[in-house]
Amino acid sequence: MSEKLFLITDEVISIQEVVDKVVHPNAGAINTFIGTVREMTKDKKTIYLKYDAYISMAEKKLAQIGDEIQERWPDALVAITHRIGRLDITDIAVVIAVSTPHRADSYDASRYAIERIKEIVPIWKKEHWEDGEKWMGDQLEKTPYPTGKPEGEHLS
Amino acid sequence: MIKVLFFAELEEIVGSRELTIEKAELTVNEVKEYLKDKFPALPVDRAMIAVNEEYVDDTDVVKTNDIVALVPPVSGG
User: Fold this and answer.
1) Do B5 and A144 lie within an 8 Å CB cutoff?
2) Residue B43 within a domain
3) Are A94 and A81 within 8 A, CB to CB?
4) Is B77 a member of any domain?
5) Which residue of A has its CA nearest to B58?
6) Where is this region: Disordered (chain A) (predicted)?
7) Alpha-carbon distance A105 to A110, whole Å?
8) Distance from CA of A76 to the nearest CA of B (A)
């Protein structure tokens, strides 16, 4: 296993390994988000997905999300692992673990992390359906960025 | 020499993950114009641009040995 808190891997993700990275005596809560591969999106049936990433930058941007979380929730500990390569239905694509002293912050910080992943982390999903395939764009439907990049506070 | 990286659909359109531009210095905007010229089908303006793994503005300058990446809208998670 990797000791990295922010990791892109082409191997199956162990939820426990990600959780173990944020275990801390001051934590009263560990919130775990598990993103999995969904079969049906509206009426379209996914057969499998392929994820690609700009790995070095993606790990850096995941670490940036960790920094942003610690600015907002100073006692939080964060670990994120995202898988790339071919993933089948129900496979785990991403695991986010956040520990905090009190539970409310762990939910908020976890939600923050997944939303930011969808904004700034260079990872791409290619959907493979029965009748075709397509690289998916921004799922937040805010594309294109008018200035060619995420704006304002989303940067730094 | 400036290295440019392409990912996802952009990689498929270019047919390669990377190319080099034989220039010592360009603005980000000039890199984009160069790419639009070379690959008319490439949706350059839909991509964010990163230089050395950080997002940049069009007016920023790219120098020799820098690595430019075209980052199409991301879809991780």
Assistant:
1) no
2) yes
3) yes
4) no
5) A148
6) 135-156
7) 8
8) 21
Task: Please report the DSSP string for A37-93 in residue order.
Answer: --SEETTEEEEEEEEEE-HHHHHHHHHHHHHHHHHHSTT-EEEEEEE-EEEETT-EE
Domain membership flag for residue B33: yes
Distance CA A72, CA A74 (A): 6
- pLDDT per position in chain A (156 positions), as tens? 689 999 999 999 999 999 999 999 999 999 999 999 999 998 899 999 999 999 999 999 999 999 999 999 999 999 999 999 999 999 999 999 999 999 999 999 999 999 999 999 999 999 999 999 999 986 554 444 433 445 444 443
Rounded Cα distance, B2 and B34, in Å: 12
The residue in chain A having the minimum alpha-carbon distance to the alpha carbon of residue B18 is A54
Q: Residue B6: closest CA among chain A residues belongs to which residue?
A: A54
Q: Which domains does chain A have, with CATH numbers?
A: 6-135 (3.90.1170.40)
Structural domain harbouring B27? 2-71
Q: What's the ipTM?
A: 0.96
Answer whether A121 sits within 8 Å of B76, measured CB to CB: yes
Number of domains in chain B: 1
Supply the CATH number for residue B24's domain. 3.10.20.30
State the smallest CA–CA distance between residue B45 and chain A in angstroms. 6
The verdict on a CB contact (< 8 Å) between A117 and B46 is no
Q: What crossing angle do the helices spanning A103-120 and A55-72 adopt, rounded to 10°?
A: 150
